[in-house]
Amino acid sequence: MSGETNRLVQLGKDISGANTFAREMDVLTASGEQVSIALLSMALQRLGLSAKSMLGDQVAIKTDSAFGKARISHIETNALRAALEAGAIPVVAGFQGVDPNGDLTTLGRGGSDTSAVALAAALGADECEICTDVDGVYTADPRVVASARRLSQVTFEEMLELASLGSKVLHPRSVEFAGRYRVPLRVMSTFVDGDGTLITIENDNMEQPLVSGIAHARDEAKLTVAGVPDIPGIASKILGPVGRANVEVDMIVQNTGADGLTDFTFTVKREDYDRARDLLETVAKEIHAREINGDNTIAKVSIVGVGMRSHAGVATRMFDCLASENINIQMISTSEIKISVVVAEKYMELAVRALHSEFDLENS
Amino acid sequence: MSGETNRLVQLGKDISGANTFAREMDVLTASGEQVSIALLSMALQRLGLSAKSMLGDQVAIKTDSAFGKARISHIETNALRAALEAGAIPVVAGFQGVDPNGDLTTLGRGGSDTSAVALAAALGADECEICTDVDGVYTADPRVVASARRLSQVTFEEMLELASLGSKVLHPRSVEFAGRYRVPLRVMSTFVDGDGTLITIENDNMEQPLVSGIAHARDEAKLTVAGVPDIPGIASKILGPVGRANVEVDMIVQNTGADGLTDFTFTVKREDYDRARDLLETVAKEIHAREINGDNTIAKVSIVGVGMRSHAGVATRMFDCLASENINIQMISTSEIKISVVVAEKYMELAVRALHSEFDLENS
């Protein structure tokens, strides 16, 4: 059923024109998972298993009324438990729920994985298994690093950083949800046997490698507003119009010079580059910025690991490694368990391979 | 969205193999109208109208639990009336309902029209308008009879006979429902302006023409079990296995000869001919029938009109008309407001045109 939701969204957009009819869009797109659960239940029954499809409102998965991006408020477990006790496999429609008015809602992108985690949490399940097209989370993208290794365990926090940095295994929202409700989450393959990768809370008994994985994100772009007066409120003056235009901003770096002027740099998805640049041209005049610079041939490379917290010197090792390969670092951004750098896109693969080797990920 | 239900049914059959998973098939096929109501609501809203899609269980349209062919037991009108009072156009999913267990059901073929009529009945509407791809009910198929005329009014009973006899304007079930609940039903075109045809209860003020229309059904076949002992229960012995194989039997004629033997003839859809014939070969041995004959190149032609009730001689006029064209009548079946004959398929158009002219339908 791959591509079905996109097909439905397109149908809706064709009819809606420039408008957004959010309630109806949810009625439309929720039909996709309805088809899937019916077909999966049939397939299970054909194998001689008892199975029962359940729609969001039949479970019921209660949400708020934010059509297209609803949040789950509560999941009833009576109907689910009744099905389980009757020996049936409940095949629940993900991505959808029902709001207090009885209106159908959808959870937005990542909604299906989030539904699964929420059901596991509501039922107090031992583990939530997500079967997908990869067999686990790797130390780096195997297409880039041939010696990349499947991780048997990773923490929620690491997974969040890896997921949001381009390792498209699980949607960050589902990982966040699993972390909040402490639902052990296992990513495994639909097609091949194996234990996959268990995403779980930090465990003292777990080996804590310094770095768990190298993530990368291609198709990035950066924009710099140079020579901006360094006064309070300038960041929101610059980013406000960008955010209102639904352009997602990722890294943000601000350096103050000696002249009371500052350079403000941020990254966006490459597809949003032209639009963001246009917006900035207007803003630049208002705030009397000197100029706008941009580059839409950059990539982001990150090292992620909870072990970093307690080990100094990881950043230095990363920067030295890149320098020894003659890769120039354009931007740096750090969090407790992650260091991200922006480099020219052409160096991306080289950077990922060098760092994978530097932190000995093929063997640890 | 034409063909969507068939596409979904095929998906379900592909997965189910030789099995029938009725509950899940309904979950699957109900998604088609869900898509349609969302798209229609969007289209109406884009035109500046207030519209609100409503699923079967949101209305609620309560049915029994006969998946795939559920019967409507009751329709709640509170949610509908609330939408109407708020000035919104309720766009209700046809073909679907919800059973006492909260399971999704579908009404089977003709279900969408039936839903519309049931809603009109529940709301006490003045009229139920069905917009379709033809602009009304004609005295005969205009592709066969160039001078066929659109009827401004027709009775429920006439419409039932016309519909079940091959004038595929409305599904008989919806007409039956409208008749039972006395909901005036108007068939009109989605694409061109016009009053369409009003289907209503008999009215003394209405002109009652002798014959309202000529219906025909191509793709028929007949089977004769010849030389059967004329004893009680023989009809069910012959038709039992046919019915259990889901072959729909239409006309049934039985003639008793002088020798205590009888010939038993019935018609089926042409696509069921081979299957029905195979079944009969087995039955024929059990009941010691002399032989099985069949013809799969026949058609059915019928004249329909409530006026027949009070006028003798209509049948004679029909038979004389066909005889004067040298058309042999193979079977005859009559009801209060209909006379059907089976003729060789090649004479079908000629028979329809001759009868249309005989009963002066182009002018009345």
UniProtKB/TrEMBL annotation, chains A, B:
Keyword Kinase attributed: yes
Domain ACT: 223-306
Catalysed transformations (reactions): L-aspartate + ATP = 4-phospho-L-aspartate + ADP
Assigned keywords, A-Z: Amino-acid biosynthesis, ATP-binding, Kinase, Lysine biosynthesis, Nucleotide-binding, Transferase
Any GO BP: homoserine biosynthetic process
UniProt EC number: 2.7.2.4
Molecular-function annotations in GO: aspartate kinase activity; ATP binding
PROSITE patterns: ACT
InterPro entries xrefs: AceGlu_kinase-like_sf, ACT-like_dom_sf, ACT_Aspartokinase, ACT_dom, AKii-LysC-BS, Asp/Glu/Uridylate_kinase, Asp_kin_monofn, Asp_kinase
Pathway note: Amino-acid biosynthesis; L-lysine biosynthesis via DAP pathway; (S)-tetrahydrodipicolinate from L-aspartate: step 1/4; Amino-acid biosynthesis; L-threonine biosynthesis; L-threonine from L-aspartate: step 1/5; Amino-acid biosynthesis; L-methionine biosynthesis via de novo pathway; L-homoserine from L-aspartate: step 1/3
Any one cellular-component term (Gene Ontology): cytosol
Class of enzymatic activity (EC top level): transferase
Kinase keyword on record: yes
Record-stated family: Belongs to the aspartokinase family.
Protein name from the UniProt record: Aspartokinase
Gene source species: Symbiodinium necroappetens
